[in-house]
Amino acid sequence: MTAEPMVEIHRGPVIESAHSGHAVICDATGQIVESWGDPEAVVLPRSSSKMIQALPLVSSGAAREAGLGADRLALACASHEGAPLHTRLVEAWLAERGLSEHDLICGPQASRDKELRHQMIREARVPGRVHNNCSGKHTGFLTLTQHLKAGPDYVDPAHPVQMACREAFEEVTGQTSPGFGIDGCSAPNFATTMVGMARAMAFYASAGTRGDAQSRAAAQLVEAMIAHPMLVAGEGRACTLLMQAAKEPVAIKTGAEGYFVAILPKRGMGLAVKIIDGATRASDCVIAALLVRLGVLDAAHPDVARFLNPPVRNWDGLMTGEIRPVAGLAG
Question: Which of 1, 27, 225, 237 has most Cβ atoms within 10 angstroms of its Cβ?
Fold first, then answer.
């Protein structure tokens, strides 16, 4: 099976561009409820797998030992924008562990918070590692590293932290990973199939109904993400706005190159989306459309419409077209 058309870019009466992709919805048993494209397509889920990478932090007892609250756990799953809200919490977490940003291996990144970024430019301040969108995940890695009494190179695929991440990844996806790529933050990102990732999200969605340690840890991470949508992403970001607009609790997480997942605890369902050309405008549109299809989002809500049917405007502000899901995708 090949990818299916999922998003159209209209200019006047003409479909000027289009984006194809894959999407899978799984239930609590891991079975496919609906799919588009190829459920067996092998993908790198990128940052949408952060709640899986954070699972050993909780299931090992490291989070409990470190006294991590829901805000820290949400940061461990976050692709945050490096706003003061995020960097202050990361800095505090590092300090509590006797660490500093120099212990992070994620690399420096300019803040995506416009006000802070401009302020740093005016003050000739260099972006740091705490501004990296993955700094919360990496602080979680460091916390687990301390718990395991392991060496400092926690992104090495052979390091106990990454071995624990791979084991967790293969357990929740129900598949042996065929390999990994190195992510933008230097950590391994394990590959799986579309159905594997949707199955993993369904595992998280139904985790609260089971009593084993791994499920309790997964449920704790989902609760943290839902409780702190601003920490998961930030001001104006799709993950945050769609979680806040939802008519029921839902955890939504983006990943680079057109990936998106959603966890629906009330339904025990998981959703995974991949746009094959990596376009964020398309993955934003599809995740909104499928959550509208499921009744989780209201298409008329302004924070849903801005991703579901965003206008295309020219330099003079004139609306020249719009981005739309293909007919029928949103139900």
Answer: 225
